[in-house]
Amino acid sequence: MADSPSLTTRLRTAAARVEAGTPAERDRAVDALRALAILGVVLGHWLVTALVADGGALRTASPLGSMPRLAPVSWVFQTLAVFFLVGGHVATRSQASARARGVPYGCWVGVRLRRLFRPVAALLALWTVAAVALLLTGADAGTVRTLVKLALSPLWFLLVLAALTAATPLLARLNPLWPLAVVLHVDLVRFGLGGPSWLGWVNLPAGWLVPYALGAAWTRGELAGRRAAVALLAGGTAATAGLVLWAGYPASMVGVPGAAVSNLDPPTLAAVTFGLAQCGLALLLRDRLRAMMRRPLAWAGVTLVNLSAMTIFLWHQTSLMATTALGLLAGRLPGLHTRPDALGWVAFRLAWLPVFGCVLVLCWTAFRHREQDPHRARPKGRNGGGGSRVVLVHRPGHRTRGASDHA
Q: Is residue 58 scored above 90 in pLDDT?
């Protein structure tokens, strides 16, 4: 009896199928940037989010609160600007392609929003049941509130991205300086003139519109050369350093529990200028990423992340909390339930990351089908009943048409 293929052989065979199913014109750097942005957010949350066991309750804490010198960690893993950059580029390109093929706006936006929100229903259902069950069994109400808030925190991102996606036809020609000016004036009123704190929420759409509009400019060919990318990187870095050093903005690019000001909740001018620097770096890395993605195994990994991007994003906090809750059965474990107030905690937390990853894989196995629409449009004959053929999802082993969609 012949020996079964080794794991390495099976992986290489699967990677070869993905490679064969990828059209030559697909810009693999776009997919790589999206995957890096998603994984950056996931790792960042796992590193700076602690659930401390305090008596019979769990409360959130962050190592950035007690160890502010770790703020550079947030500079590496707060990658949302890159995700909005890619989102703006992909949506603008996709919408222009759909319009050229005669695809109605309602059909186009419906497909894109359905892909975003299909996975949400499972998350809401599970946490509704979990919250009710915890309360009925006498769990601390504060603990339940903390868990639900963390579990559902990714939804704000989806709401903003959905709104910007729906408005893509109006934003396709928008100069990024306009939303940047809005953020600047909001912060001047809030921090310089003592304006109301609620005004900062204007920056939630305006702040993320800046990289989204940059993505549209990328589609228009305005960011093709290195000069624009270098200008974004240098200008964004200098502006962020100035705001942190001389304008009193926090050094951390993520929220820190108990801090007077958060750069992310809602976004501040410092978060936006930092995002400009990130976008510049991402644009500079395009050629290198394209070369790296010619390696079949690397490309297969990026494809897998992209096909499950929303599932990974939505369930990564749940995987952290599930690990934390189950770990309580063994007592207070360092790096999991203890206060994040020393470098020893960081070392233990790094050791927990593979466990979080394994639990996330379980969540992915259970819920990834929610991200793939079983009713996606299929062509009916040559013209698909509506003009040109439209392929909405790029699946491994299937040659993707309409590479500009990068769905």
A: no
